């Protein structure tokens, strides 16, 4: 019988922040890596050390110790100090697909530049694994997967298996069954050591299907165990039935591949919390930070990078370095604890600050590049606007824009002189401020100065915005137009070409689908209940009190009607408990105001919601529900580069307590941008700009519940209803910031469809919903400190322009950007359908590349279910 080969993997799991701040972590990281470098150099038999697969840690260290770069390069090149493929250990369920791709892109590049990037998808602590990750790993040349959380012994009886992604990609996987910290505490007393090895390694042998076992030696922020080679030698002396070696994940898999055979196949998401907590409701922890993350992620990939590509095509510099800084700020926040929000308040303030930095850099980068284009377009009017279309196809419809407008009556016109309907939603008089900022850089040039200037929010109907390009529109002050401010009334009904919406007697909405002649009742019901959980898990109180907007008092109802938009504004007042104690006693001593603006834009199939909540109570949750009357066993949502069907209720809910699961297998799920209930002929979909968490509820599982926020008092709590036993995190760390006292905003949209899911193009509607065309105003009177002074530029650009990159009809564009290593453009598409395949035109064939932007030799003629494909087009 072959001896067991025990692969001892020295490592440290290095959270960059958690209950401690990143500043503390970084200071200790410098000390730690100094010791690791010295130990590896001093001891040749200390063959390997795994530094948590995060290249950011190498960057952090070299920022303070650049003199050690050559030493690090040698150790990494020799594959003794192991880093990559990640930049940070990212979440995989609530973070966007492009964030995950760029995390691996930057992570592998930094590691390769230092000498070597580990070709193993190492995920020791993330709270679940995305179902399309095998394809993403493969696109970076990674065919091995090593992880802890996500698979229960209900499905997997051994540590080795084949993980099959949603697109069919397969990879060899190894679970670390007892956690990455399992072998951290090795006794050095010889009398204790033999028993320790028999127990610890024996448990691993029972789980392994080959003679190879993975034995991790490390834990959170673990110091390097300098005498490990001597300990391993002692293991071999004491234990003649096994062979012990200091190894790395790559050497472990090299041996494992020689012995595996007939492995079981596990498909799709790995989100089972039987043996290791998944904290599924972490998707809604710190809703304010989640919303900031989601808005910036959408802005980067849906708006900023496409516009930068347009700018680059017109001769402007592509700002790779600035984008790298923005993405890296996002990656720091994407780490599983950081995006989870399961941190101390001090740490979450750091997270919030990074979002501010990322947002500021991104919005100003967009502003500059729109300006570089707009200032080279001939100025025909004093009020001239460049509207950019970040989508790869022509777009018409109503868009929102900000503009400095005059007090005079004006029309809006396109370059052909066609009048564009618009409405002014709100305006603020900034005359003195704006005009006092003005600077005449060239006093010889006559500049129009309006008598009054207002900063306005407007809705404008535009037509045929060029694909990946821009168009120019103007204010014509010579032509008068009819009153553009919406007409206000107290009516409780609005409508457009598709829907009629009425406030019902029970405070819900009744929505009539005009084309289908179908009516939906009990729409937009707000549901408030207690949250006895912590930063990791939502958990209902054992004595809960559920309150809905059906029992609220209506403070006011107002409507406004314009040529391009109709809105219904409803203000509710709910009497709710102040805290969990009052909730248990069924007392309701506080008021919570919910103001909702429901909007119907002209000729748009979306119903838009903007919710403002005045939150003055503690430890509770607020959801909004939409009754579909579609009883379903599955929901459909979007995940990484694909839709996914999930059961609305997991059967494990019936046995989890008897089987002693670490947490209840609740069906609270994550999405990228939408969730839908549907049958073969009709359906309902909810899209979100904010929290990406949903649940399907109701006696017949026919109601979509979207989480708006939840609040709690402590980082960790013990013995929750949904998570019995010990606390996750630190139970002594109070988190008053997590109560989110004050105003909370949430935006989302609803669409109804009379077709199959695939025919409804829900992913396309969600993409458009999250890709509002940005606008730049070119008006000489604004030139000054307000915008930074610009000089007159030669007018070399046309009033309208399209980059004209090829479009893959039916696919969803995930990225448009300049390639990292050439002058070419990168475009990335994925199949958004459950069943339909997409034929790839010949123009795309031969242009294929991988997610790492290296050339692919696989010619693709069809984009199949859950497939993502990247293309390289020369400038």
- Tally of strands: 43
Determine the strand fraction and express it as a percent band. Answer: 25-35%
What is the alpha-carbon Rg in Å? 29 Å
Determine the N-to-C terminus distance: 62 Å
Indicate the mean pLDDT.
96
What is the 3D shape? globular
Query: Major β-sheet, in short?
Result: 10 strands, antiparallel
What's the arrangement of strands in the largest beta sheet?
17-23-24-25-26-35-32-31-28-29
Question: What oligomeric state is this?
Answer: single chain
Helix content: 10-25%
The DSSP helix count reads 16
- The secondary structure category is alpha+beta
Uncertain residue ranges: none
Description:
The chain has 875 residues and is of the alpha+beta class. A hairpin with a 3-residue loop joins strand 18 (493-495) and strand 19. Helix 9 packs parallel to helix 12 (345-374). The mean pLDDT is 96.
Chart the SSEs and their pairings:
Layout: E1 4-10, H1 22-42, E2 49-50, H2 55-64, H3 69-77, E3 81-82, H4 97-114, E4 120-123, H5 133-139, E5 144-147, E6 160-164, E7 170-175, H6 190-207, E8 212-217, H7 228-238, E9 242-246, H8 249-259, E10 265-267, H9 287-313, H10 320-334, H11 336-340, H12 345-374, E11 384-389, E12 395-406, E13 411-414, E14 422-429, H13 431-437, E15 453-465, E16 469-476, E17 487-489, E18 493-495, E19 499-503, E20 509-513, E21 518-530, E22 547-548, E23 553-561, E24 565-576, H14 580-584, E25 590-601, E26 607-615, E27 620-627, E28 634-639, E29 642-647, E30 669-670, E31 674-678, E32 683-688, E33 693-697, E34 703-710, E35 742-753, H15 757-760, H16 762-769, E36 775-778, E37 801-802, E38 812-818, E39 825-830, E40 838-839, E41 848-849, E42 862-863, E43 868-873
Parallel strand pairs: 1-8, 1-9, 2-3, 4-5, 5-7, 6-10
Antiparallel strand pairs: 6-7, 11-16, 11-36, 12-15, 13-16, 14-15, 16-37, 17-23, 18-19, 19-20, 20-21, 21-22, 21-27, 23-24, 24-25, 25-26, 26-35, 27-34, 28-29, 28-31, 30-33, 31-32, 32-35, 33-34, 38-39, 39-43, 40-42, 41-43
Helix pairs in contact: 1-2, 2-4, 4-10, 9-12, 10-12
